[in-house]
Amino acid sequence: MTRQDISKGFEAHENSFGVAKNGLFNNESFIPVTFVKREELNKDVRKYTFKHHQQKGVHVHTGQHFLCGFMMTDGITARPYAMTRPIGEDKEDGTFDMIVKTYFPDDKQPGGLFGNVLDMLDAEREDTLLIMGSYGPIRYQGNGTFLVDQEEDGHEQTINAKRVNFISGGTGMTPVWATIKKMLECDNTQIPIRFLDANTNVDEILLHDEIDALAKVHGDAFQITHTLEDADSSWTGERGLADKQKIDKYLFPADHDTITFVCGPPPMIKAAGEALNELGFETGKNFFHF
């Protein structure tokens, strides 16, 4: 896949896929945003910055994701991603960031299409990405209030939490980061947070310095525990998966004022959900996943 493929595909298909030239991010049409820069966070994770042209800001609800798309010569390819900046309307500056893990091609596999296309974007050419919507079942409203869509019927429920737990794995960090940052920096009421983050090794911890800095600043209000499956001898933190023992040790216990959110690969969500259920959390009541 080349930049020429992207450019030709955009010209050929922009009308048939309802690409909006202007207007707020919405759930009905794609809006083009301009690539600004790429920052390498580790060997296969990048932070991408884009410039939008929406006078009223991007308005992606905290906790949700948007759909990112490229027009190819044979159609559109799209993936969901969470925005990691800006957090809060007062932080709007006409740009936004998203963090993406790219599976590069090697001898064992062909690599992931979307991440590799992102990695080819050129700021000097003013390459574009297409954005649509604000999706997902969880929307943070501020001051401990969440709107959550029920899996069974999509019914929206309002949850007011006095304590919040998060569990994430890998790139599941991104919506969790956005929610925690808004809770700590934008709320009038300080809601205590406990966070268990699981990764393969220390290099895989997304936003490692940023999330640890938040914990240092906010003290007892926000405590994070990292656990690694494949840590070397220099690692002094927890080892292994985000299992029942660690959840019980580091997170708030189950009660009607405590809510737990999980985000990560499906096997991790399943295992964490089973552990949470055993510890007294009820799926759809005080335990949800992004």
UniProtKB/TrEMBL annotation:
All copies of domain FAD-binding FR-type, residue ranges: 28-141
Cross-referenced InterPro entries: CBR-like (IPR001834), Cbr1-like_FAD-bd_dom (IPR008333), FAD-bd_FR_type (IPR017927), FNR_nucleotide-bd (IPR039261), OxRdtase_FAD/NAD-bd (IPR001433), Riboflavin_synthase-like_b-brl (IPR017938)
CDD domains given in the database record: cyt_b5_reduct_like
Family annotation (Pfam families): FAD_binding_6 (PF00970), NAD_binding_1 (PF00175)
Cofactor(s) recorded in Swiss-Prot or TrEMBL: FAD
An annotated GO cellular component: membrane
Binding site for FAD: R79, P80, Y81, I99, K101, F104, V117, T174
One GO MF term: FAD binding
Subcellular location: Membrane
Name this protein carries in UniProt: FAD-binding FR-type domain-containing protein
Organism: Protomyces lactucae-debilis
Organism lineage: Eukaryota, Fungi, Dikarya, Ascomycota, Taphrinomycotina
